[in-house]
Each structure stands twice: as C-alpha cells, then as structure tokens.
Amino acid sequence: MAHYHTSPSKSVIVILLLCTIMFPVMTHCDEKNEYDELPSQIQKFVSKYYPEIAVSNYDFSDGIYHVTLSNSAYMEFNSSIAWISIDGRGAILPEMLLYDQLPTALYSFLESTGNTGEVYRMSRNSTIITLGLLDSTAVYDIATGKITN
Known about the structure:
The protein is an alpha+beta fold. It has helices spanning 10-37, 40-49, 95-101, 104-112; strands at residues 55-61, 64-69, 74-77, 83-87, 119-124, 128-133, 137-141, 147-148. An eight-stranded antiparallel beta sheet has the order 1-2-3-4-5-6-7-8. The protein is globular.
C-alpha cells in the first residue's frame, strides 16, 4: 500500500512565512529610503504642512527638486531648498503654509478678500509670487509689494 504525503513540507511553509513577513518590510524600506533621500529641509517642510501624507515620488533634475505627495500636492524646490512652486492638484493649499510662506502683505490681501481658503497653487521667482485662486490669479511684485489680480 502506497503512502501519499499531501501536506506541504516544513521548508515550503517556512519559505512562505518568511516571504509573507519580509515582503511588506522590504517594500516599506524602499518607500522610506526614498523619503530619507530628500534633503532634511524638504522633509521638514512636507511634514509641517502635509503631516500624515507620504511622498509618492521624488527626483532631482536640472537643479530642481520635484516632490509629489500621495494623492496630494506637487512641489518644486530650487537647489537652495526654497520652494518655487506648490500645486495642490485640485485641493486648496493649507492655510498655515500660506501664512508662513507668503509675505505679510500678500497674506493680508488674501484675508481681506476672503481668499485664504481658495488658493490652489502658488509659484515664485526672483521678482513675483503668483497665486492660483479659485476664480482668478493674484500676482505679488516682490520689489514694490504691489498686488494685481
């Protein structure tokens, strides 16, 4: 009478258990490493204004850091780690971000016009800061402090 062994061998069970345990650990490490490669100033910026949101993609090309958050904002920072653009990708930008990062006169303008909750993107260069609002655009001249929209 032949004896048939139908249960998996112990080595197969051990391998399957190790794979089940190690796969999530290995993929988590990959994600964490990408975030850890970001300059610390960008890490602090992201965690301050977008806490609990993971970085889904990051790269550095042509002197610009490109950072995409999971189902959230897209940001660009120059080689000096200053933000040059932040796009909420359909969501409003956090009010604390606006308050901390915009000149006082520009933030006051947003408050006085009731637009602090309607800023969807912002960008800047050496001469102007541009805010993309719900129905308009506001442009702040850095040299003069003049705001046009």
